[in-house]
Design brief:
By secondary structure, this protein is an alpha/beta fold. The protein contains 15 helices and 17 strands. It has helices at 10-22, 52-55, 59-65, 96-110, 143-147, 149-152, 207-213, 220-230, 232-235, 280-297, 301-331, 333-336, 341-349, 357-363, 365-374, and strands at residues 2-6, 27-32, 43-47, 70-72, 75-79, 82-86, 91-95, 113-116, 133-136, 154-168, 175-182, 185-193, 199-205, 240-241, 248-255, 259-260, 263-265. The structure holds flavin-adenine dinucleotide.
């Protein structure tokens, strides 16, 4: 097959690898508009069982990526200065650039052609000519999807909170969520180490807080200084660092139809999952596995594309639904901060409905006991 992939993020690179590995006769090329060795953002986190989802289908990639991961067994919720460690929540994190470099090297070693600095702006681009399959893996702002939104049945729900993806040289010892109340409203930082020297430091606020703080008209340097002041006690004097960082609102995207003709959506182009559940990269890689298997199992391309959607939708939707509930929890953080610290942490743990009281007790008996003490009706 002649396969042309628009976008060299985790979805595109991983799909290219799976296809080329399963049949070296495939002609697979990935077109990435950015240069090699550069990307946006800092580290990304994988929740729960980290890369276990890869193991059954692809031990080689599991072994390639696991050594790059920072892992830790606990999560910490900081409600102002009260820190509540919560056991039983394993997480792993990796620098986005390190992840991409490893996936690129693996793809190239198999004979995938990676073309950097080559944006594709139209399905008529000569780079896609004669392709049996065109994969739109060009991220949340995919023009392939947006220009064909009627065919895909695209729905975009631009959520109200504002977030900015920073890093810091302060190295944290667990995945942490720190909430601090200021005169403008509550600030939340999602922060975690992703290498021995660096941490992600993502700041999220409600739209009202963002406006009251004056971020709309604030320079990049002043924005960093403002966030450093809010989280001074958490940063211990280490700086906040920017990497093409700017305030954004999260677009919750979904598509009723995942393909038309020989064009198929994958990864964030197909659906976005809020960063608070740490699953976007995993979902992108699982999409790649699903399409690869559908192509392996089906008799023709149309059948394969239908099978991809049919098989992948149910497990994907479970996580997507949880992500959308999680978004709303953060949108209510100013009200939630009025809760006592233990209730706040408990509310966080149970926010998506996938963790009930019995599960909290299983993961962290201490938190369950503290919550029961405050809520005797549960004991
Ligand atoms: C603030 C933030 C924090 C996040 N944190 C996490 C996290 O902790 N854990 C997690 O799992 N996920 C996280 N994510 C989500 C994660 O980054 C994405 O889900 C994941 O990168 C999706 O992979 P992808 O390959 O589909 O898209 P992307 O990684 O976005 O890659 C798309 C690629 O396509 C390229 N491209 C775009 N347009 C074109 C074009 N016209 N021509 C050629 N190339 C093009 C882009 O340059 C990019 O390299 C976060 C996202 C954000 C925004």
């Amino acid at each position: 097959m002649k396969i042309r992939i628009v976008g060299g993020g985790p979805a595109g690179l991983y799909f290219a690898t799976l296809m080329k590995r399963s049949d070296p006769g495939h002609d697979v090329a990935v077109f990435e508009r950015g240069p090699r060795d550069a990307t946006w953002g800092f580290g990304v986190v994988f929740s729960d069982r980290a890369l276990e989802f890869l193991r059954a289908d692809d031990e080689a990639t599991y072994r390639l990526l696991m050594p790059l991961m920072e892992t830790w067994p606990n999560l910490t919720i900081a409600h102002s200065d009260t820190r509540i460690p919560i056991a039983g929540n394993g997480f792993a994190a990796v620098g986005r650039l390190e992840l991409l470099n490893a996936l690129e090297a693996q793809a190239e070693s198999l004979g995938v052609r990676l073309v950097f600095g080559r944006g594709i702006a139209s399905l008529d681009d000569p780079a896609l000519a004669g392709a049996d399959l065109v994969v739109a893996a060009n991220g949340a702002f995919s023009w392939v999807r947006d220009e064909n939104k009627d065919k895909f049945g695209t729905e975009t729900d631009l959520r109200t909170n504002r977030f900015i993806w920073y890093g810091t040289s302060k190295v944290f010892d667990s995945l942490s969520l720190t909430f601090r109340t200021t005169e403008h409203g509550v600030f939340c930082a999602h922060h975690y180490r992703y290498s021995p020297r660096m941490s992600t430091f993502l700041v999220e606020v409600t739209d009202a807080t963002w406006r009251r703080a004056g971020f709309a008209d604030m320079s990049e340097a002043d924005t960093i200084r403002h966030c450093e002041r809010v989280f001074a006690r958490d940063l211990d004097g280490e700086p906040i660092l920017s990497n093409k960082s700017f305030w954004r609102q999260f677009p919750a995207i979904s598509n009723r139809q995942w393909s038309f003709g020989n064009v198929v959506l994958m990864g964030d182009a197909l659906r976005t999952a809020h960063f608070s559940i740490g699953s976007g990269t995993r979902l992108a890689m699982e999409d790649a596995i699903a399409l690869w298997k559908a192509l392996r199992d089906a008799g023709s391309l149309p059948e394969a594309l239908a099978l991809y959607q049919e098989r992948r939708l149910p497990p994907m939707k479970k996580i997507w639904d949880a992500a959308n509930v999680s978004i709303r929890w953060y949108e209510g953080m100013d009200t939630l901060m009025a809760l006592p610290a233990v209730d706040f942490a408990y509310s966080y743990m149970t926010r998506t409905g996938r963790v009930d009281h019995a599960e909290v007790r299983r993961r962290d008996p201490g938190l369950a006991a503290a919550y029961e003490a405050a809520h005797p009706e549960l004991a």
